[in-house]
Amino acid sequence: MNKLNIILLLLWYILLINLVNVNASALTSCLAPVKGQTVYPNNNTFSTLIVDENIYVSYTPSVLVYAANNNDVQTSVNCAVKLKMGITARSGGHSYENYGLGGRNNVMVVDLTNINEITIDSKSQTAKIGAGNKLGVIYDKLSQAGFLIPAGTCPSVGIGGHSLGGGFGMASRKYGFASDNIISMEMVDANGNLLKIDNKTNSDLFFALRGAGGGSYGIVTSFVFRIHPTPPQVTSMTLQFDINQVHQLFNAYNEVGPSLDNNIVLSLSLDTGILSIEGLYLGSSKNAKNAMNTFLSKAPKPTSSEFKQQTFFDSVVKFSYLSSNEVKNPKHHPYFFKAKSFLVNKGLTSQAIDSIVDFLKNANCNGFALFDLFGGATNIVDDTSSFIHRDVLYGIQLLSSWETKDQSNKCVKELNDFGKEFQSKFTSYFSYQNYIDRDLDDWQTRYYGHNFKRLVEIKSKYDPNNLFNFPQSIPVKV
Ligand SMILES: Cc1cc2nc3c(=O)[nH]c(=O)nc-3n(C[C@H](O)[C@H](O)[C@H](O)COP(=O)(O)OP(=O)(O)OC[C@H]3O[C@@H](n4cnc5c(N)ncnc54)[C@H](O)[C@@H]3O)c2cc1C
């Protein structure tokens, strides 16, 4: 390299360093009015604060803004617009593809952890819930007041991403998805305005957010949910079966599933050599046994079964496999994983069951499959919701996990290859958007079906410059 080239290279470095510093200082001064904490990459704690649940994909943001209130969120949005930066909301950090960190590097992450008030109005049976709350905390607080919302079983999932994409759990056949129970929301839009959203005000956003809202339209800071009285006792059910009777068990699931009492949710799980069902009945064990009678008369005889009568909150603890204390104070359990979602309308055929059993048996990575019985209230069509999966018998989640980064490519490829073929041969065309999957083709239709076009129109009305975007966000144009 000659002298001139060396000098030019040095000058280029100096210019680059200055540009980075100018941008960094512009960002710091723009965010100065924020009351909550702002954490930059040069902070010692930064690297630990960007470890979300799935460590298979990771991104490095430019800053983490721990918003303390709506104003902080508004300031952050205004700064992102001014500095032409990407911006993303993070509630619980449980996106399967780490979209809570933006799905790319160098974005501003607005973390909502500290917007976590929960105000319960027992009389109107509603609760205002800050978007930074985790499910475990919500279950705890609502249970203490004698209420529940239908939502997922993992306590550290955030209510933000979860309820904006659906939210299925052990009370869903009775009360629907979490998103079905949202009555109103507050959201900071791309202009930095705080919008009130309900069935009458900004009703198009009300429709879009309840099913397709995670990350695409703005930052939701709070929700008002319809809450439901907890029965005095519920019954958790654990049934183990001989893996050789998998076909008979699926026959019972397919046949009796649709007519099963809506107080019941069942989740069948298939692992290498293990076949079991976990379930919840919203009532006493005596009634649970009665309600399960027809199913059990068609199913193979369980090798073990337990019907445990307990409080609703104790059932939440049971299905979390964590301590009660951790459910109330949830934390991440980061690991390497990838998942596929399939939705089934009429039940799997014998050939489909064999195919999934064989895959699990021969896979190089740790796989298991869950078959959550939908139906009941989850299948009620609601034209104020963009959630389309309303004719589903069960939702399948096929998950693969592994121990070290160098296994990632092999494990992901194996799952992707199987998933593509399985979905094309044996299930409906559709997938559940909360199990978001960057490798899914035609995700626009598979997640949002006939609503996609309308979702795009709403996006272009509220966020025409596509400020809120990530690799699978609703675009401004079809
Ligand atoms: C261990 C585990 C267990 C799970 N169990 C269930 C289950 O039982 N049932 C079920 O239905 N799903 C379940 N999920 C899936 C879960 O519902 C989704 O991953 C959900 O998107 C996570 O939300 P989050 O806020 O925790 O994640 P984040 O990563 O914080 O956010 C996910 C997406 O939503 C956006 N977002 C988050 N908060 C807001 C907000 N306030 N405003 C606007 N956009 C926002 C983010 O930008 C991102 O795009 C589970 C996931 C994991 C990892």
TrEMBL record:
Keyword Signal among UniProt keywords: yes
Cofactor(s) named in the record: FAD
Keyword Signal: yes
Residues making up the signal peptide according to the UniProt record: 1-24
Membrane-crossing residue ranges in chain numbering: none
Molecular-function GO term, any one: FAD binding
Residue ranges constituting the FAD-binding PCMH-type domain according to the UniProt record: 56-230
Family assignment from sequence similarity: Belongs to the oxygen-dependent FAD-linked oxidoreductase family.
Protein name: Glucooligosaccharide oxidase
Upper taxonomic lineage: Eukaryota, Fungi, Fungi incertae sedis, Mucoromycota, Glomeromycotina
